[in-house]
Amino acid sequence: MNAESKKVSLIMPCYNCAEHLDVMLASVYGQTYDNLELICVNDGSTDGTRKKLEAWKPLLQARGIQVVLENKGNGGAASAINCGLGLFAGDYVCFPDSDDMLMPTYASDMAQYLDTHPEKGYVQCDWLMCEGGGANVPFRWRRSHDDLHAGEHLLESLIVDRAAHLVWAFMVRRTYLEQWLPGLRIYDGWQVQEFPLLLPLACGGMYGHVAKPLYFYFQRAGGFYSRHFLGGYAGAVEYGRRLHRETLCVIDGLPVDDARKARLRLLSGLQLLRNGLMLSRRYENEADRSSWLRDLADKIQTLSPSGYRPGEEELSLLYEEWLDVLISHLCTGTVRPPACPETPQEPIAIYGAGREGKKIISLLLAQDVTISHIWDQAAVDSDLGRYGGVAVSPPEFDRVSSAEKQRLSVLVTIMNSDTSQTVCDRLRGCGFAHVYGHRQIRAYITASIVPRFLAGGADRKGCTQ
Known about the structure:
Layout: E1 8-14, H1 18-29, E2 36-43, H2 49-62, E3 66-72, H3 77-85, E4 92-94, E5 101-102, H4 106-116, E6 122-131, E7 140-142, H5 154-159, E8 170-173, H6 174-180, H7 194-202, E9 208-219, H8 224-229, H9 233-252, H10 258-282, H11 286-303, H12 312-332, E10 348-351, H13 355-366, E11 371-375, E12 386-387, E13 390-393, H14 402-407, E14 409-412, H15 417-429, E15 434-436, H16 438-455
Parallel strand pairs: 1-2, 1-4, 2-3, 6-9, 10-11, 10-14, 11-13, 14-15
Antiparallel strand pairs: 4-8, 5-9, 6-7, 6-8, 12-13
């Protein structure tokens, strides 16, 4: 191992983590970087956390790591971070969680990046994610960086989850931290520390990226995220609302102009709507889902230059796409239709007249799209009615001529991705040349509504870029 000149400080909040602490501290012990300082802030733990930290201290010191143990009353992760920020002496600083694990080169690889990239104030690594945290559970490599959302719109991208905001994957220069975090204190109104730390840092520019996994993240059943976001509909919604309120407080303190603060506040509200719609769908709460959709329709009408307001059926099907339209509008001031590698051409055939299929059929007919066939397996045993003068019929493809199979664009409206793929493969095997799955259909329809948002137009043909 080398004797590095730059000291790296690890500020680690600890709360009731005795069960998992050995793994993290062993990974700190095993770092290939010599000039380390570990600051453990025991945030009022009631288990054996303090005793375990004290047992590890001489072992880490014998390894040459400077160790600071600080005990305080329980105040949450943000409060513990503030405590550590008042104690650290390093040139670079990281914020690992006490129940995860570091790769051996976690400190050395990111410190080397900052050493060789003086123009960057901070850097982020990739990580390996394990859901559950048990033995023999596979890890998934998660990338932290996306060039599509870099640069001047980083603040906006962080708020709407288009850029990773996981503090343990970052290393920050002390001088940069002092510049963008006056007094070396983050907002600590609640337990979370991600936005209070990363939003101020993002005001200074884009971070660097080490394109390798240097951190093991365990998403545990009893962890903060699982307790608040996966513990049932009511708790998850309240978590989202509280996170939104806290985000607004952080935004108010950012060193940006009032116009940008207003955009950031709107984006946080859109992220709240996204979470609410996702949760109401997951937990099948139709009453709240209708309320979330009305709120989204209000936002669209307010932000649309043409005052366009979509109907509930359109929003129910395309809320994700509409949110992306609004987010792009607020982040960059421009809106582009979604990419369609191949655009369906009329005449159109529909496979699937279930709940989602009926919504798609209704939207297409409202835009005067010519539908020549509607197929559904359930039509074998029952009459499913007519749409636009076209009866829903069983999928008897031998009645379709070879020439028509080459001409038709078949839209498979089945939501389940595996079933949809099976049907698409079957249709292609039967000789249909143009078959589109659910995501392609949504992109096709969304491309037709972007002009309405911008100027009230109704250009429904094609996916122009």
